[in-house]
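Annex B.
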Amino acid sequence: MEDVIQKRIIANERVIGKLANMVIRFQEMFEENTYAECLEQYTEIINEITGLEIDLNKNDFIEEISEKEYIQTEKQVNELQLKLNKIFEQINLMQEQLNSEKQKKKNREEYNTISKLIEDYPPTSETLV
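Tho complex subunit 7: predicted structure tokens.
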């Protein structure tokens, strides 16, 4: 955005410089030439000013579009950031669930191992007799 503003300032400075040069040239010509020549030069200056106005309007239009694109891009970035935050929350929740399931599996395996060991021994009713 700053680049656009800097370019616009530079463009405006160029326009102002061109306009100043045209006015100075016209004043010099007005003092030295006939009415017809001055009128011709005046017409050329008006055409140049019109062209400069068009350039300024283009710059305004480009700046407006750039600003809209900047705002739209910021909006999209914010939306993506929100989506990413939700995804990270889901990942963390799933990680917790995975850890819980791993612990359950480990407990189940330990239980099964212990139960197999216990099955290898006779029941206490048989051993006490």
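Residues 7 and 59 are 9 Å apart (CA to CA). The chain has one domain: 2-122. Further annotation is deferred to the next reporting cycle.
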